[in-house]
Specification:
Blueprint: E1 7-15, H1 19-27, H2 29-32, E2 39-42, E3 49-53, E4 59-68, E5 72-77, E6 91-100, E7 103-113, H3 116-141
Antiparallel strand pairs: 1-7, 2-3, 3-4, 4-5, 5-6, 6-7
Length: 143
């Protein structure tokens, strides 16, 4: 790759739930962990803390930068492990939600990553985002 410039990860998914329902799964700890991580501590307001424990070892931390219900949320992001290539606050995750009938288009952008971190975080989002799609399908099925 050679370049140390920052690249962004961009993903778009469709969730079978309205924007308000999907937004809750981005900012409420007990809902976030239904599709990503095991425990979360979230203070969903600009400047509020974001901490997500994936598996008892890998912990992502940052702070909320923008909370615009129910259409946009962004937070800084990084890993607590000493020496992490992406330390807390060094990258930014943004979700934009667009209503499409009774479904929601979710656009994820993760910026500020460099080198191998781009591919590894891309793989991470590819692993977790289908869980958000599944949550929407379950919400629809359960009325």
């Amino acid at each position: 790759m050679g370049l140390q410039s920052s690249e962004s990860i961009e993903r778009e998914i469709r969730v079978s739930a309205d924007v308000e329902t999907v937004f809750a799964f981005l900012i409420e700890p007990e809902k976030l962990v239904q599709w990503m991580g095991t425990t979360a501590t979230l203070d969903a307001r600009p400047g509020g803390g974001f901490r997500l424990d994936y598996n008892g070892v890998n912990v992502a931390r940052g702070e909320f930068l923008e909370v615009d219900p129910p259409h946009r949320v962004s937070y800084s992001w990084g890993w607590e492990e000493p020496g992490a290539a992406t330390p807390p606050g060094s990258s930014v995750v943004t979700f934009v939600l667009v209503a499409d009938g009774d479904e929601t288009i979710v656009r994820l952008t993760h910026t500020g990553l460099v080198g191998d971190e781009i591919a590894s975080h891309g793989e991470g989002w590819d692993y977790f985002l289908p869980g958000l799609v599944r949550i929407g399908a379950e919400a629809l099925a359960n009325g």
